[in-house]
Design brief:
Elements lengths: L4 E4 L7 E5 L8 E3 L3 E2 L11 E3 L27 E2 L2 E5 L7 E14 L4 E7 L4 E5 L2 E5 L3 H14 L6 E6 L4 H6 L7 E6 L3 H9 L1 H4 L7 E5 L2 H6 L7 E7 L13 H10 E10 L7 H12 L4 E8 L7 E8 L21 H6 L5 H7 L23 E6 L5 H8 L5 E7 L2 H7 L6 E5 L5 H8 L4 E4 L6 H11 L2 E4 L5 H4 L2 H7 L2 E3 L8 H15 L3 E13 L16 H7 L4 E5 L2 E5 L9 E3 L7 E5 L6 H4 L7 E9 L2 H10 L19 H9 L6 H11 L5 H13 L15 H6 L5 H12 L8 E12 L5 E11 L7 H18 L9 E3 L4 H13 L5 E4 L1
Parallel strand pairs: 4-5, 5-14, 12-13, 12-15, 13-14, 15-16, 19-20, 19-22, 20-21, 22-23, 23-24, 24-33, 25-30
Antiparallel strand pairs: 1-2, 2-3, 6-7, 7-8, 8-9, 9-10, 10-11, 16-18, 17-18, 25-31, 26-27, 28-29, 29-30, 31-32, 32-34
Helix pairs in contact: 10-25, 12-13, 13-15, 16-26, 20-21, 25-26
Length: 837
């Protein structure tokens, strides 16, 4: 992808202007006073921001669109004039601050960024719904995370900060006279940009002559050979262990830190609260102790962090170094001094036993005494499947000590891999085609969660009915499930469906917006809802513009579904073979070239969403431009056919070129004959489209006489081992060629668009939008946005929420079901942003 950038700068401080004309036409951004150098940085050069060559943003200056003054209705965390930090990382507690006004809100490439002015804590920076700093108390954190490793090092000259884009840690580092250079590497450019404007006292560290600010992936920076053994001290100023910061709490990251340190070097890393993350702290100290001869935990107090306390793991490569003993005073501090330094390492006895002695952390407290609840037996959760979306589900459920989790998949090793590092989790294997084995493994659980292909859900539900076990799935309610209604009612169980991303998260915010409009006397005249799970733009590097973050078979099967919808008061149908031809351009913002096509049957949603007044109701899928034409060609050529073919025998030695010749009826397997035959079956709209599709088929190796075909089939065909089919055999190739490379990100875009007629006859357009990116080397966006809604619903069911324990088949179409799930997901930083446009 190419983009033009223009930079202007002077040495005496006027704003730096930057525009990216290919992505954000007619938009110019001012960043003052940071200066940019896209090619080369030199030590001690004056406050500049560098995009290193290993970072995907190096090819263009990528600055997200600023918030438009178009009337943000609300931020999910701000209600009735109060910001509420609710998060399942610290269950049962919340932090609330009164809001004077919202100053800034955007969805950056990596996280939700909010700044508001509070009534008593000054300006507040919030990332993904979690307070990062306030002007009133930030110094207690910044001073301690910086001075604990620096003041105990005899001569720190070169210091690295990973994260910390707000600049506060840099401000503290440069107080040490020995420091010659302070390098900061933060993955999200939005943080320093926003901090410059709204947190100027912290951001002054970004502008210091010793500071060198780099926007890039900390992992990639540390892996760069030129940074080996380069730093005296490395400080990791990260947010909590979810989202972009997840990988910064894992041992591979600490190994990179060790390699980047000079002999005798120190590290300090944000290490959470004793009262909230004691298990994590114990694990952090154990994993760092394996790499560093000295590894200690210290803490500070800060009123706006969970439980009013936050900690740090401080390590040294020098076995004789005492990081608890400061070697010098640090001037101009408001919290830190030498006595505080020494006292910070003295932890309460309950925490010391976990951190130093390795005892398990205490579990959730059960009330005792008068009025206490009766202790209950642990709830048992069975998860069927260990695929793309299972990990976030498992991680969420095992946060809660009152649940035990069994993960069962076709192969035991897959289950074992999934539960590595999880508490109260057991691995198992099961063949879901074996009714007796399926029944046996479901028995004794409180809920079974089916994250296996939808064709098996009916079998799971039948077995669950036998043992009166509730069921949760992320799939649409199929006819096969509806046929089990009487068995479900007789068993008295709840079967919750459609609670992933799409369907799932889309329902939650459609129901919310519709209910809000109706409550004010308005009408929904048109409802469009489109969702796409895609590669992030820099990873969309194949002819499909698509990579698989879930079942490739499921993706392709969905493209064969007939679509029905309402448009301008008429009920229309598009057959599966013609679905891709119905795709149209769909504008969300100028950064993306999307097409959209209808998905399944949208017509019942007039009733299910309670919008009988709507003339247009379309739910559909987003893809990048070029995808529909390519898929339509595969359909025309028969590659999405599930029928067994003799030329796809399981013992075949045929090449893809030979199989393609059979598919298209070519005279031979030569490329020229294959292309000639393809042209008789596919009608191209232009020479450019023909060239693009032929090039794509070539890229898939379908003309390659040396590329062996991997034969696959349906479950029945696999069991018979006679012949496979084109669809499943193509999936084998797609999963190889369209897989995400290490470090690549996926992306989810979801938007509802409502055309509204208000009570007074005014016509307005409301959008509800989610743009979310996966984490390089971490959790994918798709897995998070499917797994967490499912996990939250499962937890609410286990806790006996009345809306999610109704007997029968449920789906999130009502306010009563949607609201509790939506509010819990907002605690996880998952929310759509509503705007009138």
């Amino acid at each position: 992808m190419q983009a033009a950038y223009r930079l202007s700068q002077t040495t005496d401080g006027p704003p730096c202007q930057a525009s990216c004309s290919a992505w954000w036409p007619r938009q110019t951004y001012e960043l003052d006073p940071i200066r940019f150098n896209l090619k080369k940085s030199t030590p001690h050069s004056h406050h500049h921001l560098v995009f290193p060559p290993f970072h995907p943003l190096a090819s263009f200056l990528h600055i997200p669109q600023q918030q438009k003054k178009m009337g943000v209705i609300t931020h999910p965390c701000i209600q009735d004039g109060w910001f509420h930090e609710r998060n399942s990382q610290w269950p049962g507690q919340a932090m609330s601050l009164q809001v004077q006004r919202i100053l800034h809100h955007e969805k950056s490439l990596f996280q939700d960024v909010l700044v508001f002015e509070s009534t008593t804590f000054g300006n507040v920076l919030v990332l993904d719904g979690v307070i990062q700093c306030t002007e009133r108390d930030e110094f207690s954190y910044q001073e301690m995370i910086a001075h604990l490793p620096l003041a105990s090092h005899p001569n720190p000259e070169r210091v690295l900060v990973i994260g910390g884009g707000d600049g506060g840690v840099l401000r503290e580092i440069v107080k040490h006279e020995s420091v010659k250079e302070a390098v900061l590497c933060d993955i999200d450019e939005a943080v320093p940009r926003v901090s410059q404007k709204y947190l100027p006292k912290m951001a002054e560290g970004l502008n210091h002559p010793k500071s060198n600010v780099i926007i890039g992936d900390g992992f990639a920076f540390l892996k760069d050979p030129k940074n080996k053994a380069s730093f005296d001290v490395i400080i990791t100023d990260s947010s909590d262990p979810v989202g972009p910061a997840e990988v910064l709490f894992q041992q591979p990251y600490f190994a990179l830190l060790k390699e980047a340190l000079k002999p005798g070097g120190h590290i300090s890393t944000q290490a959470e609260s004793l009262w909230v993350h004691l298990s994590l702290i114990g694990e952090l100290r154990r994993s760092t102790k394996e790499l560093f001869p000295v590894a200690d935990y210290a803490f500070t107090t800060i009123p706006t962090y969970p439980a009013g306390q936050i900690g740090f793991v401080v390590c040294s490569l020098d076995a004789q170094r005492n990081v608890r003993q400061p070697l010098r005073e640090v001037p101009n501090c408001r919290y830190y001094n030498s006595e505080v330094h020494k006292a910070a390492f003295i932890v309460p006895e309950f925490a010391r036993k976990v951190i130093e002695d390795g005892e398990p952390a205490p579990g959730r407290v059960i009330a005792t005494g008068e009025g206490s609840s009766t202790p209950r037996a642990p709830k048992k959760v069975l998860l069927l499947g260990s695929g793309y979306v299972a990990k976030p589900f498992a991680e969420y459920v095992t946060r809660f000590s009152e649940y035990s989790l069994t993960v069962a998949s076709a192969k035991l090793e897959h289950s074992q891999r999934l539960i590595e590092g999880l508490h109260n989790a057991t691995a198992a294997s099961v063949d879901v085609n074996d009714a007796a084995a399926l029944s046996e493994i479901i028995k004794g659980h409180d809920v079974v969660v089916s994250l296996i292909p939808y064709i098996y859900h009916a079998a799971v539900i039948k077995a669950a009915c036998e043992h009166k076990v509730n069921v949760v799935t992320t799939s649409y309610v199929s006819d096969a499930i509806r046929e089990l209604e009487s068995e479900i009612q007789k068993a008295g169980i709840t079967v919750m469906n459609e609670i992933g991303l799409d369907p799932g998260l889309d329902h939650l915010y459609a129901v919310k917006a519709i209910d809000d409009v109706h409550a004010e006397g308005g009408k929904i005249k048109s409802f469009l809802s489109y969702c796409g799970g895609l590669p992030a733009p820099e990873a969309a590097d194949n002819p499909l513009g698509y990579k698989f973050s879930w079942s490739s078979r499921g993706v392709l099967l969905a493209l064969r579904n007939t679509a029905k919808f309402w448009q301008d008061g008429k009920e229309l149908t598009v057959s599966g073979p013609e679905l891709m031809a119905a795709a149209k351009s769909f504008y969300i913002n100028p950064a993306f070239a999307f097409v959209a096509y209808p998905n399944r049957d949208s017509t019942p949603f007039k009733q299910w969403y309670n919008i009988p007044e709507a003339e247009t109701v379309i739910r559909g899928t987003l893809r990048y431009q070029g995808f529909p034409e390519f898929i339509l060609a595969l359909v025309k050529l028969g590659f999405l056919d599930e029928e067994a073919k003799d030329f796809l025998a399981y013992d075949t030695k045929a090449s893809w070129a030979e199989v393609t010749a059979q598919m298209v009826g070519a005279a031979s397997a030569s490329e020229s004959d294959l292309i000639a035959a393809i042209k008789t079956k596919v009608s191209f709209s232009s020479a450019q489209e023909e060239e693009t599709i032929i090039r794509g088929l070539r890229w898939l190796d379908l003309f390659n006489s040396k590329a062996p075909v991997t034969v696959r089939g349906t479950a029945a065909q696999e069991a018979a081992k006679v012949s496979g089919n084109p669809l499943d055999s193509l999936c084998a190739t797609l999963e190889d060629k369209c897989a995400y490379a290490p470090g690549e990100r996926d992306m989810v875009m979801l938007q509802h668009k409502f055309e509204i007629e208000t009570a007074n006859g005014e016509h307005k357009t409301l959008t509800s939008t989610l743009l979310d990116y996966g984490i390089p080397h971490g959790t994918s966006s798709m897995s998070k946005l499917v797994g967490l809604p499912c996990a939250v619903s499962t937890r609410l069911m286990l806790e006996g929420h009345p809306a999610l324990t109704q007997v029968g088949i449920l789906a999130p179409y009502s306010k009563e079901i949607c609201d509790p799930i939506r509010l819990e997901l907002e605690k996880e930083g998952i929310a759509l942003v509503e705007r009138y446009v």
